[in-house]
Amino acid sequence: MVVSRINKPKTKRGKRFLENRDPKVVENVKRAMFIKGGRTSEKITKTLKQFYILKTPFALMLSKKNILRPFDDSNPLEYLAQKNDHSLFMFGFDSKKRPDSLIIGRMFNNQVLDMFEFGIEKFISMEDFKNDKVTLGTKPMLVFNGEAFSVDPEYIRLKCLLTDYFRGEVVQNIRLQGLEHVINFTALDGKIYFRSFKTVFLKSGTKIPNVELTEIGPSFDFVVRRSKLASDDLYKKSKKQPKEIMPNKKKNVVRDGLGTTYGRIHMQKQDLDRLQLRKLKAFKRKFDKPDQNKSGNENNKKAKKDTVTE
Amino acid sequence: MVAMENTDSLQQAASVSVQDIGNLVQFDPRPIDSSEFKKDPDSFLKQACTIGTQLLINNIFQLPVEKIDDVIIAKLPAPSTTLPREKPIPKEKPLTKWEQYAKLKGIKNKKKQRKVWDETSKTWKPTWGYKRINDKTKDWLIEIKKNEDPNQDFFSKRTQERNERVSKNELQRLRNIARSSKKKVPGVGATPSVLSENPDKLKLKKALNIAKRADASMSKFSRKLENEDKVTKGLGKKRKFESNYGDIKNEKDKQLKLFEKLTSTKDRSSKEKLNIEKATNKFIQSENAEKSSGKKKLAKRSKMGGKNKKFSKKK
């Protein structure tokens, strides 16, 4: 599974570091890097910071300016991703033609898979909501609303990207009281509304509590501008899963719509000649020994054939 | 009243919404009433999100739970939507040349103990590496064999030999990488030039023929390629000539054999068959031509020379 390198790592630590970056069956959590463009407005800088806080601990803020144009030339961006080993990115810039722009995207194999450009129309930061925030790094619940997310192929991909971006770690167990953060995306008339809430569980008298939400910010109104989607070929390639984590197919077990399980079993044909019946003198084999043997053999052959056809 | 409305909308949303509990994702695909939205966007979004969250919570709280240290933990199912991977699926590490050979021959590594008891120092010492047992480099004395030149520096010779082994190993490692990445691997020593220049079918055949015999068994035990015998048939054989002072009996037999082949009626499909019909036609034609032009008789005859003999082979 190890990638063979021409330059060997010189220390054990270096080796471990490189091994961590190799392709894995069960992958690391996708990490996001936040990049400032050549010119950024205050809105953009703040936005990047807000998302950086939301994404910590799986986030990296690049402190220097990077003059990039991801839609024209994605190579420098890919270089940064490869260097830092971060496959999600958010790039903010401000220009006359595209004021307050934010590009969100993801990579596969250090190549840009898909990216979307948003214009920020409305922005309220986390600090403007004067209330308790959620614990840093909690796994958020993601709530999507709007018809476009199921109809428009571009928005379907966007939904996939946003899920990928914000879902955080894949876990097997979750603390029920830890479900305190909800991120809401609503698609309506070419805009995406981003809202973030904290949950409050109220007693309902049953096992399931009633949910009440308080907005904790940040909140954004985005306009969808440009987008670049991966080709079907690349997308399919990126979605391919290794055999090791695919669930084993159970043979001969079928479930119908009502939840009933059916099993198919294969049996050999019964040899009725050798069936043990009541012991009678007339059934004794020694009376017709040669004949009996023959018929028995034939039956056996038949049984074998049957199993093959089944 | 408000609660009633809520339960109604909850049920409606539940019937259409799509969930991926493994990722904690809830999706309501119903179209949004935009006039309703414009009245008060923020409260509308909050309302819609509350319904979505409630639906998700309903399902999460019904999952099997476990109690660990007064904390209730639910077991999440695996995510139902497959998201793109970050990196391609890892490939199996290609075997090195030695590993291939070992596999072929069924050689297995013996597990060595990490530490061995050293009788001289009465301590446990590593089998290999730093401060290892039997460390020859630490010897202050080297025994010189009889046939060796006593005037050379045996200590520097030892380090030199070691360095050579190290660099050989490094070279082999690089060659393994190159081989597995399907790049051209430089050979050790003289490589056959047949392949390096313009590769040509005949050259390739010749190279194969040479390579075939290049092992100790003269190809007796080497693995054969598909159709190898067919391809290299006749290659590497020397031409044979009859001796000038041949024995007459042998020559006579050969000529007779050839004649028989031409005249035999058994094998009609043979290329060397005599086509009697064609031959007679030709003969008649030539006779006619002779009659008609008596003047050119001589010239024609001379032209006919060896090629247009009276009995020609069918082509």
From TrEMBL, chain A:
One of its GO terms (cellular component) is nucleolus. Signal peptide: none annotated. Coiled coil: none annotated. One of its GO terms (molecular function) is rRNA binding. Residues 284-310 are annotated as: Disordered. InterPro entries: Brix, Rpf2. Residues 299-310 have a biased composition (Basic and acidic residues). It is found in: Nucleus, Nucleolus. Residues 30-233 form the Brix domain. It comes from the Eukaryota. SUPFAM superfamilies: Class II aaRS ABD-related. Its main location: nucleus. This is Ribosome production factor 2 homolog. It comes from Brachionus plicatilis (Marine rotifer). The lineage of its organism: Eukaryota, Metazoa, Spiralia, Gnathifera, Rotifera.
From TrEMBL, chain B:
It is found in: Nucleus. Residues 213-247, 283-315 are annotated as: Disordered. The keyword Nucleus applies. Residues 223-232 have a biased composition (Basic and acidic residues). One of its GO terms (cellular component) is nucleus. Keywords: Nucleus, Ribosome biogenesis. One of its GO terms (biological process) is ribosome biogenesis. Residues 294-315 have a biased composition (Basic residues). It comes from the Eukaryota. Pfam families: RRS1. Signal peptide: none annotated. Belongs to the RRS1 family. Involved in ribosomal large subunit assembly. This is Ribosome biogenesis regulatory protein. It comes from Brachionus plicatilis. The lineage of its organism: Eukaryota, Metazoa, Spiralia, Gnathifera, Rotifera.
